[in-house]
């Protein structure tokens, strides 16, 4: 059997404990809080990050690891006895990590880099799926091909409490954000597997309606699958994800694997606190 490892970035929404549980390597991104750099998931937990934003009312900057740090991680993987490596990154539209991994020169491992065309929730599910294929004895090339196909089927839906930080980060026009705040509009945002960018799928008036719409979306998609991985996450808004989990209880109980997580700072740095949502990955 081929000795194949899987590596994700910390934007995948797998915390260190879950990554270790599934045997997945992780490269942490950096978060700059007032000039001091922290490694997300290592030096900086999600709760601490979102509390910092609430206190300072501004969005911090994030950055990727250096080429030298990536080489050190590749050396670690090689020294652990692996011969081949699959790197799964969040969408290259939100980070330079995909480009770094694609351009790095390293001869001691056969490496394939996959742009998940997604963020947070479903990127971690792809990595877990890859590990399952490895355990089942699939060959390296076939695993990569299956991941490239499977990522097109993954979906992520999330909402935010306020347009404030999207406007501050230039993600939403000021006029749109102002109207959204006045009318209590809650967008349902997706990350398209076609272009790997954010898109507003639908808008609702108030949290109750957005929760009802998410329940409808889950029924529309998950109702037609017999097997799937599912994840519910939040960014500084645990109550929202708990209510959503209860709303989607029937789909949670039907899932092959169900996870909860906190949305990584690398996504929260674009949206601010107050977001929650769900994602899924259909299985064969």
Description of the structure:
Keywords: Lipid-binding. It comes from Anaerococcus obesiensis. This is DegV family protein. GO terms for molecular function: lipid binding. The mean pLDDT is 93. The chain has a six-stranded mixed β-sheet with strand order 10-9-8-13-11-12, sandwiched between helices. It has twelve helices and 13 strands. It folds into two domains: 149 residues, Rossmann fold, CATH 3.40.50.10170; 128 residues, 2-Layer Sandwich (Hypothetical Protein Tm841, Chain: A,domain 3), CATH 3.30.1180.10. The chain starts with a strand and ends with a strand. It is of the alpha/beta class.
Record keyword descriptors for this entry.
2 domains, four-stranded parallel β-sheet, Hypothetical Protein Tm841, Chain: A,domain 3, 284 residues, 12 helices, Rossmann fold, six-stranded mixed β-sheet, alpha/beta, globular
Summary?
This protein has about 280 residues and is of the alpha/beta class. Helix content is about 40%, strand content about 25%.
Helix-strand blueprint:
Layout: E1 4-9, H1 16-22, E2 25-27, E3 30-33, E4 36-39, H2 46-56, E5 61-63, H3 67-79, E6 84-89, H4 97-103, E7 110-115, H5 121-135, H6 140-150, E8 155-160, H7 164-168, H8 174-182, E9 185-191, E10 198-205, H9 207-222, E11 228-235, H10 238-247, H11 249-254, E12 257-262, H12 265-271, E13 275-282
Query: N-to-C SSE series?
Result: EHEEEHEHEHEHHEHHEEHEHHEHE
Mean of all residue-level pLDDT scores:
93
Kindly provide the radius of gyration, computed on alpha-carbon positions and rounded to a whole number of angstroms.
18 Å
Low-confidence stretches: none
Strand order of the largest sheet: 10-9-8-13-11-12
Q: Helix share of residues?
A: 40-55%
Q: What is the terminal separation in angstroms? A: 22 Å
- Helix count, DSSP H or I runs of 4 or more residues: 12
CATH names the topology of the largest domain as Rossmann fold
Number of strands: 13
Largest sheet data: 6 strands, mixed
